[in-house]
Amino acid sequence: MTAARRSHARRPSRAELLLLERNALRRRVRGEDFELFYGKFRGKKRRIERRPHSSEVTDADARWKTHGWVPIGDSFRRESQSGEFESSNYSVPHSNDKKITMTEESTPKWKGKAMAELPATDPQLTWEVLEDFCNVHKWLPIETCYHVEGLSGQPGLVRYCASTVEEEGVGDDAEKTTTIKWAKEKLLEIDPVQRCLTYEVGENNLGFKSYVATIKVFPMNQDGSKIEWSFVSDPVQGWSFQDLNSLIESYLEFMVKKIELACNTN
């Protein structure tokens, strides 16, 4: 009886198989994308450009679609040169996967700039002060600065800067403590013609992870000069951007007064 039934069983036609395949695929792909995906799946020679429904896409979509992979059901496939599809073993993420936007935010950098004018100081004299990289303690409110390594006036020159800072103790009767705050700073670029230099903060106990500053000297009017001090820094723990920006402004103001005093004395 079983054999008789099996002998009379009709194999589905190609059209019926395609219909079954189409219905199965429709259940696995969103409706408005079905026609595009089905055409690609059947090997039709046309370019498929799937537009996401919003500005959000899954991490998998963003990464795999870039390389020509098209999501078919629960996997990604792409068309080879022969017109057939290569299959990947990467699964489509479920709806509860983490979403990312096309402009994923990262920790912002701090960017600041301070400027000061020296109306009666020749730009070359101003530049000679800044060019003396390992003697910056003469012009800034720090206690010491000295050469560590590298050639004077050349990229790679490293200086050590330090100051002693008093810190309040914990509690009403606690005594103040003194701490040496220090940093090693490396000269990255220097251009005597354009009168500018760039340096970065390396090892330090100030909390800097990344800090790069550029100092430029510009001529102003006939006999004057102007200093521009710009910086890009990672956020510093325990500081605000305004704290750092105010520190640079105060340093520059102090420097300008020292330079003007030295030039007037001479």
Q: Key features?
A:
seven-stranded antiparallel β-sheet; 266 residues; protein phosphatase inhibitor activity; Alpha-D-Glucose-1,6-Bisphosphate, Chain A, domain 4; LFS; 28% helix
How would you characterize the overall build of this protein?
This protein has 266 residues and is an alpha+beta fold. The chain folds into 2 domains: 15-101, no CATH class; 110-265, START domain (Alpha-D-Glucose-1,6-Bisphosphate, Chain A, domain 4, 2-Layer Sandwich). 28% of the residues lie in helices and 34% in strands. The chain contains 6 helices and 12 strands. The strands form 3 sheets. Strands 6-12-11-10-9-8-7 form a 7-stranded antiparallel β-sheet. The protein is elongated. It starts with a helix and ends with a helix. 11% of the residues are buried. GO terms for molecular function: protein phosphatase inhibitor activity.
Please report which band the strand proportion falls in: under 5%, 5-15%, 15-25%, 25-35%, 35-45% or over 45%: 25-35%
Question: Average pLDDT across residues?
Answer: 77
Alpha plus pi helix count? 6
For the largest beta-sheet, the strand count, sense and barrel status come to: 7 strands, antiparallel
Uncertain regions spanning at least 5 consecutive residues: 45-58, 60-67, 72-105
Q: CATH homologous superfamily of the largest domain - what is it? A: START domain
Structural class, from secondary structure content?
alpha+beta
Beginning-to-end CA distance, first to last residue? 120 Å
Order of helices and strands: HHHEHEEEEEHEEEEEEH
- CATH architect. name of the largest domain: 2-Layer Sandwich
Shape: elongated
Name of the CATH first level of the largest domain: Alpha Beta
Number of DSSP strand runs: 12
> What order do the strands of the largest sheet run in, or round the barrel if closed?
6-12-11-10-9-8-7
- Summed up, the domain count is 2
CATH fold-type name of the largest domain: Alpha-D-Glucose-1,6-Bisphosphate, Chain A, domain 4
Helix percentage range: 25-40%
- Compute the CA-based radius of gyration: 34 Å
